[in-house]
Amino acid sequence: MAINEAPLDFEAAPPASPYAEILAELINNGSIELCDSGVDIPSLPEIVPYRKSIFVPATKRRPLPSIIDTMARLNAVGFDPVPHVAARRLATQAEIALFLKKAVKECGVRRIMLIGGDVSTPAGPFDSARSLLASGLLNECGVKEVAFAGYPDRHPIIDAERLDAELLAKLTLARELGLGASIVTQFSFVPARIVEFCAKLAKTAPRASIYVGVPGPCDPMKLLKYARICGVSASSKMLGDMGFKAVKLALHSDPGEQLGVIARGVASHSLDNVVGVHVFSFGDIYRSARWLREMAGV
Description:
By secondary structure, this protein is of the alpha/beta class. Helices cover 43% and strands 15% of the residues. It has helices at residues 19-28, 68-76, 93-107, 129-134, 137-140, 160-176, 191-204, 220-230, 233-242, 244-250, 256-267, 285-296, and strands at 31-33, 53-56, 80-86, 111-115, 145-150, 180-185, 209-215, 274-280. An 8-stranded parallel barrel has the order 1-2-3-4-5-6-7-8, surrounded by 5 helices. Helix 1 (19-28) packs across helix 11 and helix 7 (191-204) packs parallel to helix 11 (256-267).
């Protein structure tokens, strides 16, 4: 499949009928990320009225134990909290077991986002997401579903062949363990890359549900910074080569065109494995949530 390298026109209007209904369904079935600390969680249902999955990343400054309170408050107002767990950053097996048991019991967690964690040397017994999965701890602690990361632009460190094989191995192992499994893609500035990635998975992993990652409204330079952090390497290089004018074009504050591409793909049945969108809010969940409501016609 040829890939159109032209940058996105994020100023485009939301897709018109018949795609609007599909787009609303993808948004309503999807998820959003909560990175910002200090958010008034009880106010979120005012702008996110349906029971949406809210992903809660852990970071160096906000380790796993510290997000328990956030997830409990999200669950209390009707959301489905999904913690990020980076296997290579876990110091001990007891650490993750304690966290998962509390997350399930106190926060209503059913699903986790399981990633390897890009550190050169594992902090503890797990050298990959698959090794943590194979330990059986998720099942023992009451986790029912697991989401894995997908990389339309490829991973900045791991080669494509190994990355594809590892993803398929994790999906297979999750099924063998009786866990629900899905894929959340990294965002990309080139919609055709996402279409190609999802179409390939429709053949190699037809039972895997995909949530397409899209960037929420964000200052252009801030978004480019996050792209580099997240490893959106090919897109970042393209933008760097084309200069600031391309940055402004490709990183405008309304990424509606990208959602339109996905909705059209679902309508044409070329992306039957896409079930929702996942929005990276980049520290402003209110702005992203309001934008999603507008796109869904709520």
